[in-house]
Amino acid sequence: LYVDIINQFPESEIISEIKKKLWDLNIEIIFSGLIIENSQVYEVKPQDTLSKIARKYHTTVSLIKESNDLKTDTIRPNDRLKIVTATFSIVIDKSQNSLTVKMDDEVVKVYRVSTGKDNCTPTGEFTIVNKLKDPVWYKTGAIVPAESPENVLGTRWMGLSKKGYGIHGTTDPESIGEQITEGCIRMSNKDIEELFKIVPTGTKVTIVD
Fold this sequence. Notes:
- The structure is a single chain.
- It is built from 5 helices and 14 strands.
- It is an alpha+beta fold.
């Protein structure tokens, strides 16, 4: 219904609100046990681990746990798990300060982000090469621990194949939506924690002007 409203009434004054409802619903479905087009039921085999299954289907352990309501990493043979098999990708639009996550080319959600001042965020196609929870910030002349209020990386870091650049959280949520960073893409901690669960390393990231 949300998609129908967006397609039929694109100029409506409530479209932005409808889009937000649709995006939140998309995330809720992905995180639920509902078997959708881009997912399947997997029967756990002897010697399986969540990490092994995640690698096989190019997904994340966090997403498997979230969509199966698993509180621990323990799984047993013959358990049946929902596995999201879609390929996720990310498009960052510097002019809009937006990050769009797609699932097999369908838009899942659009997030507000901050990008680099003076257009210093690089454009092109990259991949996510590493993911860190509660990252330490290595700045010139200092090492800032994760728990420090001076650590500008927030609660999550996803490093890009362009050395020195990544997508990360923030200690300054009021800055989201501005061109203010040293070149990285900045998200609210809540948003990047959500995205961190969904996209695996190797995910394609396209940055455009």
